[in-house]
């Protein structure tokens, strides 16, 4: 075995490779399969990309996880059972998902849109799995070469059985997709082959990945239609997709080395100079080589041989986190050169997104994994508060974080996204580096009031990293003070009562609705709550049930955040006035009005879903509080005008609607279709230029729901002075909706 590289022990360079040695079986992850006594079921194939990484199709992962075949969304912390047909002995293992490249519409590849129903081809559709243990003996990653037309190829079923080997010929390779005509006899490529390698018989190399078979579609069968036709992703497009997904380091050993004259590379030269200085002789190399390989999870021989400086330079350039890993190894013995390597990782554009060593990254992920449930749910909130600029969806979307598996996947995305971002730009002492975004975010998470042990461990991790990077201790202390000040003023997500109104019939206060009630104690999990039976309810009857649930929520939240009410309505009910209705008091007690006692907001997911505006909706929400409100008046009487105004600024997140009475709900529908999450208007019959409607969003827009509640209370106290009757749509993507409000029509697909 050579240093810092994967390869078959004892196999010479001229050994004929076998694609079966790198073939992987992907089994069904559904526990119900085993419960029926049928054991595991093969859903597809994969191929070893490195000794510890497996490449397959994303739709194979979807099938194994029991999801729709071409589901676009990330499946979360998936762990799959794998088989190794080429192993010396029958063996199975498990692997976790590390890179997800979802299937996407080939018509709009740059938009990353889901695959439309009935599509015959698509892009993306790749996934990388990392083995949770060592691969069994005999498993060897294959070599790859470019796919071209007119080649004899073969593909194997996921289990690798010889009788299921399918032969064919690549008839064309265009746009990254190769079409394979199968032989008229023998096995045919079908379900269970997807994700496996397309093996070029003449080249003894893999040239692509099986993706789908081509069917003749609907309608009567025509004998002239092509049979045994399948298509595959070419190695060329696979490489492009993996590099774009941040997996370049996994490709280092996939292709045969081609001797060539290297062009000048400043980073390579800088690394050679540092290595010459840090490893001046064999004694230094022997002292550090094995420890460095272990930290990078790279193989290394134990026969007394040593890596050359050229090998060492190559691994520093191609393996994720190798430069900081070497700095970590050198630090106890040679802090000067260790700091120089850290500076190189932090300041060189090719390395800045990976400035932690693998052990440092793993230590942080383990600490995050020990956070209690109430802290896990607030990590997105802490992260948003730490930075003045919008952050990616994978950082601020807190849906489902109470589930430890979902949080584990979220934590990996969180670390990756923040590690590649620059710091907060605050001033630091001359000659010292700024605080990276990840360290600032860790301080805010640590300040969340977690148990003292976890908070201390997170802060110690931050202090160690600051020391490695040369960050001034006072600078880190300033960021810690920012986090503590925020934590003292921040509150957890308020409990809420979610009410879904559907099927409205009738008019006004006699209108009746089918009603569903759910409660959320603040952890983001919605629990069904009792209603008033199966019969439709009038607004007055709904308010009575509302107060019963709100009294319980308020009683359980003494000393904590006050409950809120979210009404899920259809667009025709946007001006419903449940907030103004009272519940009759007992005896001399005044009647309670839900809209003056509790913040009450509307949500209308049906419009957003039909308009397919989830992407811009989340973007606008991330920009909440960064810009002033957009105001609409009588001039905005056309949906095209409104859409043009809002599309001009995709970060516009708050709209105040001042169009004439009778048109405001209609205008609100247009805004919802454009993905606007916060809308405010007056349902009262005041003219559009009335000065009485002065409900501007406050400087801290996140306080708007309570500001509207306070105004409603003032209007109840002094109706002549406060004449507006405000309606507030507050559609927070981080607050999940009941399943009934999220359902979409399922679609059937017949592709592999």
Task: Give a brief description.
The chain is 32% helix and 18% strand. It is α+β, with helices and mostly antiparallel strands. The protein is globular and about 90 Å long.
For the biggest β-sheet, the strand order reads: 1-2-3-6-5-4
Roughly how much helix do the residues carry, as a percent range?
25-40%
Q: Helix- and strand-based class?
A: alpha+beta
Low-confidence spans: 6-16, 33-37, 258-263, 744-752
On the 0 to 100 scale, the average pLDDT is: 82
Most strands sheet: 6 strands, antiparallel, barrel
Number of helices: 23
The span between the termini is: 38 Å
Number of strands: 23
Instruction: Give the DSSP E fraction (strand runs of 2 or more residues).
Output: 15-25%
Apparent shape: globular
The Rg value, from CA coordinates, equals 30 Å
Question: Which features does this protein show?
Answer:
752 residues; alpha+beta; six-stranded antiparallel beta barrel; 23 strands; globular; disordered C terminus
Description of the molecule:
This protein is α+β, with helices and mostly antiparallel strands. The protein contains 23 helices and 23 strands. The strands form five sheets. Strands 1-2-3-6-5-4 form a six-stranded antiparallel beta barrel. A six-stranded antiparallel β-barrel has the order 7-8-9-12-11-10. A five-stranded mixed β-sheet has the order 15-14-13-16-19. β21, α22 and β22 form a beta-alpha-beta unit. α7 runs antiparallel to α8, α9 packs antiparallel against α15 and α14 runs antiparallel to α15. The C terminus is likely disordered.
List the helices and strands and how they pair.
Layout: E1 23-27, H1 31-35, E2 42-48, E3 53-56, H2 58-64, E4 79-83, E5 92-104, E6 123-131, E7 151-156, E8 165-174, E9 177-182, E10 197-200, E11 205-214, E12 229-234, H3 235-244, H4 266-278, H5 282-295, H6 309-318, H7 322-330, H8 335-347, H9 358-369, H10 373-376, H11 379-386, H12 393-396, H13 404-419, H14 437-446, H15 452-469, H16 473-489, E13 496-505, E14 512-520, E15 527-529, H17 539-556, E16 564-568, E17 582-583, E18 592-593, H18 594-597, E19 600-603, H19 605-610, H20 614-622, E20 630-632, H21 639-648, E21 654-657, H22 664-673, E22 678-682, H23 704-717, E23 726-730
Parallel strand pairs: 13-16, 16-19, 20-21, 21-22
Antiparallel strand pairs: 1-2, 1-4, 2-3, 3-6, 4-5, 5-6, 7-8, 7-10, 8-9, 9-12, 10-11, 11-12, 13-14, 14-15, 17-18, 22-23
Helix pairs in contact: 4-6, 4-8, 5-7, 7-8, 9-13, 9-15, 11-14, 14-15, 14-16
